[in-house]
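Service request form, structural biology core

Requester: graduate student, group of Dr. S.
Request type: structure prediction, single chain
Budget code: on file
Notes: please return the result as structure tokens.

Sequence provided:
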Amino acid sequence: MQTKERMIAGKTMRLETGRVARQSNGSVLVTYGETTVLAAVNAAKEAREDIDWFPLQVEYREKHYAGGKIPGGFFKREARPAEHEVLTSRVTDRPIRPLFPKGFKNETQVIITVLQSDGENISDTWAGVGASSALLISDIPWNGPIATVRVGMIGTDLIFNPTRDQLDDCLFEMVVSGNKENIVMVEGEANEVKEEVIVDALKFAHKNILDIIALQEELASAVNITKREIPEADKDGELDDAVSKIIGSQIDDIVKITDKVARNDDKTKLVDSVLSDLEEKFPERDKYIKTLIDSMFKDSMREMILSEGVRSDGRSTTDIRDITIDPSILNRVHGSALFTRGETQALVVTTLGSKSDEMIIDSMDEDYKKNYYLHYNFPPYCVGEVGRIGFTSRREIGHGNLAQRALKPALPDYDDFPYTIRIVSEIMESNGSSSMASVCGGSLSLMSAGAPLKGHVAGIAMGLITDGSRNAILSDILGLEDHLGDMDFKIAGTREGVTAIQLDLKIEGISFDLMIEALEQANKGRMHILDKMYESLPEPGELSEFAPRIISIEINPEKIGALIGPGGKNIKKIIEDTECEVNVDDDGIVTVAGQDAEKCQEAIKLVEAITFEPEVGMEFDGKVTRLMAFGAFVEFAPGREGLVHISELEWRRVDKVEDVCAPGDAMKIKLMKIDDQGRLDFSRKALLEKPEGWTPPPKRDRNQGNRDRGRGRKPFKGRR
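Core staff response, request fulfilled:
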């Protein structure tokens, strides 16, 4: 067993191997504070010959026992990974994947399990540290290490790995992965911060990354593992020459075809032609030939950009594709927009809901609700393919989450716009940066729905082509440039600053100089897109007639019980009478939702009537609920009663209560007294004109009859 420790940002980080999961190729326990994760990695002994891609699987799982909880649901066990687990799996996968040697095709699996959580130190970043450490001490070939950290900003201070409580106060937060030299992955959200602040934060993160990498290297030195050898790639010089002779300059011509479908069709025809010509001389080499042509296609596209500054669709490196915007394209939904940029198109729909539409999250550390979420759908037809329709893919979850975070800072405060907001982005066409099209379309659909956004949010995807000595940064990348390029750098924001950022690389890192250049170029592109969006929809529209009307008020939390009533009687009656949805939070916020604004107001009045604090001297229009020998009980507000003593019914002497009133009668009453137990005494006669010559009747014996006056009965003593 080997253990290495180091102080990282004032807390001890411990890496341990050799105690658990000992049959894995590599396993490490990562502990920071009192949060512990286990990372175990394994790779198959033999490479897969039937694939031309690297079969890596990364799975991050949180166990409820880690936070001292039992899972919800019928089966009381962890089932399918939650959305945040999928997102953490992706964030862990993206920085380690480019560091596997080219040509390594052994099935590789990285499994990270949270074993304990202190609820303070967030475990997702330690998943990346664990994966790197386990790969580093295994025999699996890998060009690491890397480290993953979180950085936030409170005020003007940069915070390393902010706690859960600190995150609530952060101006931005970013999860950053890096190696010794460069940043390799970024995932973050911000509240309209400037690009230079982001760069400073990345540099700050990298300093802490170096300390964690040093700790990993100490552990690796103690273990001293020999890495597997990778067989050299299969080369066939004769076949290579034959393919090149047939193709000639055709690939260069195909690369310059601007239309995606036409370009792909011509490439397919070329591949088929080459396979047909070489089938007899080189049988059963189809896969090798296809891979070779793909490589030639990639080299041609990259060289054209690096040498000429011209892209396959004819644009320069800084040009943005043509943009078309159709706001409110669907007239029955609450809000919609069709955003088209080149051959990428997103139909985005906003739906406004009530409190009951909030999403309940059952996590390891805490349960909470979300009143805003965005879903992203990528159907096969958007790329002209036939594909399987099933569960939401990891890609869809990841792209949706990025767009969701990008729009969040622009949303109105809940107190000002008390709606649950669901945005759905349906990708109609895809040729690069559909997630950023979802951001633009989402912003437009929100304004179409009448949501008072703080400003439009636009997104742009930046690319990079580099051969080590020459660099070309690309604005608004195509799908081809994403696939064959070296970087996918997505930046979203308003005119005031950045709201979300995501960096993925296919190379081992990017310098800060290139990152600064990319951010500056992205800013210009974003402003161009924002100008188009404001031209199309400069301000929020009217709230859709099909959207619910929602009104919120705040009541004394001590009155929640009275509002609900025994067995929910009071709140159910309000819902039944007004046909509105009524929800009450523990902090006393009452939300009323319905399609009819007048009925919503009626429900609010009923809530106010039940929960207000009556004062002596107030007058009410009440209803008699029941009669007793000593007086009548009158409901002065829904579910709230008080007593009108028989002596307070009339100025004259009343022998029997039923001589004056009956259950169901309306009665105007005035509050005369509130005793020390909160019981209310009303008077009817106080609102009647005193008869001429009236003299007080003889006092009746207050000891006669039922002395408790029914005050112990639940309808009168009802909980408030």
